[in-house]
Specification:
The protein has eleven helices and seven strands. Strands 1-2-3-7-6 form a five-stranded parallel beta sheet, sandwiched between helices. Helix 4 packs across helix 11.
Length: about 325
């Protein structure tokens, strides 16, 4: 039976997706002005995956993230101002300005951290799942990773370990069609990544990653199984990143027609229109949400830009070897 979507739930899901989209657009702007420097991989277009998945988690559940981790952090309860301060290298950021885009973590919110290593979160998720099982808890882990990570050895090692030990891990592959600039169709013998679950005797499921409700429904179902000791599972969400792989990517390997096709499937636009059509939200309420998020992003930018840089006397803080 389909879940009844209340106005409160619709506003929550829509706001979170808007926060991710507008946060990434602000980061793009700051990168263009060299206010934010270094590598930064934007999540715009994939909002429905993070928001749909994290919306059914408890606060004590945990996630592992990727180099494209801003959306995961926001969806799991991350603070916009602390994230943007971190990207700006400020002392008030999540990692005191030392980690930057690819190393944001918020353990108190259940986010074990972004990871600059492709597939790096896979091993962390298996370890977290093992810890939960050893402590006889009913918590779960969602491990976010991209299509490119499924060709890493750690993917197979982690899946094998989790399946053998029956760990409460949902392996959520965000298949955005490209590992950096190489299309899935060119580097996989079969582009259906979900079939790889067969090698480990676990379910392999596909879901529309541009539909926040479809993701929420499927993740809710597999999480219930994982809490009952019937994990793990491989869930593949078909999605698309709107920006290039990173700032240096001109996207010459994608056609304008392809990009338009996926922009027409924008998860925010689709969900907004659906909620308005069903009478759950009004057009005015959607616009008010958008305005509220704009203010939150502006406040976060002000906080980040006005925050101090770490002092020289803190240079060796956290250095142990």
């Amino acid at each position: 039976m389909a879940e009844k979507i209340t106005r409160e739930l619709a506003e929550y899901l829509l706001r979170k997706m808007m926060e991710i989209r507008q946060f990434e657009e602000k980061v793009s702007d700051l990168l263009g002005r060299n206010v934010v420097t270094g590598a930064s991989h934007l999540y715009a277009g994939e909002e429905a995956v993070a928001v749909g998945a994290c919306s059914v988690l408890r606060k004590d559940d945990v996630i592992t993230s990727t180099h494209r981790g801003h959306g995961h952090c926001i969806a799991k309860g991350g603070e916009l101002h602390l994230m943007l301060a971190e990207l700006c290298g400020k002392a008030t950021g999540y990692c005191r300005g030392r980690g930057g885009s690819m190393h944001i973590a918020d353990v108190t919110a259940g986010n074990l951290g972004a990871n600059g290593v492709v597939g790096g979160g896979l091993g962390m998720a298996a370890g977290a799942g093992l810890a939960i099982k050893m402590q006889k808890q009913d918590r779960v882990v969602i491990c976010f990773f991209g299509d490119g990570a499924t060709n890493q050895g750690l993917f197979h090692e982690s899946m094998n370990m989790s399946a053998t030990w029956n760990l409460p891990v949902i392996y959520l592959c965000e298949n955005n069609l490209y590992g950096m600039s190489v299309a899935v169709s060119r580097c996989f013998p079969d582009p259906d990544i979900s079939i790889r679950a067969k090698a480990y005797g676990i379910p392999g499921i596909k879901v529309d990653g541009m539909d926040v409700l479809a993701v929420r429904e499927e993740v809710s179902r597999v999480i219930d199984l994982a809490r009952k000791g019937k994990g793990p599972v491989l869930l593949v969400a078909q999605t698309y990143r709107y920006f290039g792989h990173s700032r240096s990517d001109p996207r010459v390997y994608r056609t304008k027609e392809e990009e338009k096709f996926w922009r027409d499937k924008c998860p925010i636009k689709q969900f907004s229109e659906k909620m308005i059509k069903q009478g759950v939200l009004t057009d005015g309420e959607v616009k008010a949400l958008d305005t509220s998020v704009q203010k939150a992003i502006a406040d976060a930018e002000k906080f980040a830009l006005e925050s101090p840089y770490p002092g020289v006397d803190e240079l060796y803080d956290g250095l142990y070897v």
